[in-house]
Write a structure and sequence with these properties.
Strand content: 15-25%
Largest sheet: 8 strands, parallel, barrel
InterPro entries: Aldolase_TIM, DHO_dehydrogenase, DHOD_1B, Dihydroorotate_DH_1, Dihydroorotate_DH_1_2, Dihydroorotate_DH_cat, Dihydroorotate_DH_CS, Dihydroorotate_DH_I
Distance between the termini: 29 Å
Protein name: Dihydroorotate dehydrogenase
CATH topology: TIM Barrel
Structural class: alpha/beta
Number of domains: 1
Cofactor: FMN
Bound molecules: flavin mononucleotide
Catalytic activity: (S)-dihydroorotate + A = orotate + AH2
Number of helices: 8
Pfam families: DHO_dh
Shape: globular
CATH superfamily: Aldolase class I
Amino acid sequence: MAELKVKINNLELKNPVMTASGTFGYGIEFADFIPLDGLGGIIVKGTTLRPREGNDYPRMAETASGMLNCVGLQNKGVDYFCEHIYPQIKDIDTNMIVNVSGSSPDDYAECASRIDALDRIPAIELNISCPNVHDGGMAFGVTCAGAASVVRAVRRRYSKTLIVKLSPNVTDVADIARACEAEGADSVSLINTLMGMSIDIERRCSRLSIGTGGLSGPAVKPVAVRMVWQVARAVGIPVIGLGGIMTAADAIEFIMAGATAVQIGTANFIDPTVTIKVRDGIDSWLDAHGCRSVAEIIGAACH
Ligand SMILES: Cc1cc2nc3c(=O)[nH]c(=O)nc-3n(C[C@H](O)[C@H](O)[C@H](O)COP(=O)(O)O)c2cc1C
C-alpha cells in the first residue's frame, strides 16, 4: 500500500482527499453514507461574522457537465457555529476546516479570530471570492491589493493554518497567489466557481434569481487544472486543487499539475460516497504504477 499521507503546512492529512465548502454541509449530513474519518479533511460551509439569508430562489440550475449556483453564503453566523455546530463536529477524527467569508478585511479577521479559539479546528480557508462591499462590490480575490488586504488582516489575528481560496475570475491567478503568500498564507486552494449564466428562452429570463451564478462541476476542470499548474509554479506554499473532480483519475490530474491535496464539491450531489471512491482509486493507481507515495506524483506532469 502506498503512503497516502500529505502535509499542508503543519496540518497532517491521512490522505489527499477533502470536501469542498458548500457542497458537504458540516460533514455530519454525510455520516450515514461514508466514514467521515476516512477523509483527509472536511471544509465546512461558508461562515460569516453575522448571519446571512442568502439569495432568493431559484439558486441552482443544471448546465452541460456542470451546475450554476447563487446560494449567497447562507449561514447562521460564526457565533451560532461556535455554540451549536462545533460541539457536533469537534470529535470527527479528521481535519475539520472552516471556510470563512466577509465583506471587509476586519469582518474576516474578527470571524477568523473567533474560530482560532476552537481547539479542534486546525485551519481555516478564506473565501476571497465574495463581494467587497466597502470597495463597491467587487470580490477581494480579483486584485492583488484586495487579496493581500484580507490575508494581512486575518494573519494578524489567526495563528493556525491559513488556506486562501482563490477565484478563477481573474486575468493572472499566479499573481494573486503570490500576493497571498507574501502576506503569510500557508496554502492556497483553487478554484472557486467560474462566473456563468443560463437563460430560459421560453421565459426570456435567467434561470437564477440574481441573474448570474458560479459554475462548478466537470465543465470547469480543464480551467482548474491549468490554474493549479500555473500557481504551483509560482508559489512555494502547498496548493490544494479542485474544480470538477469526479473520479480518482481527475484527482491525480490535479496532483500531477502540482496540487498536494484535492477537494471534491459538486460530485457529492451525484454520489455521496464519491470522496471515499476517489481516495481508494488514488491508492490503487499508485500501487498499480509502482509508486510508494502520493508525494512522488505531486507536480509530476511534464508539458
Ligand atoms: C452549492 C454550492 C455552494 C458553495 N458554497 C461555497 C462556499 O460557501 N464557500 C466557498 O469557498 N466555496 C463554495 N462553493 C464552491 C465550491 O467549494 C468549489 O470551489 C466549486 O464548486 C468547484 O469545485 P467542484 O467543481 O468540485 O464543485 C460552493 C459550490 C456550490 C456548488
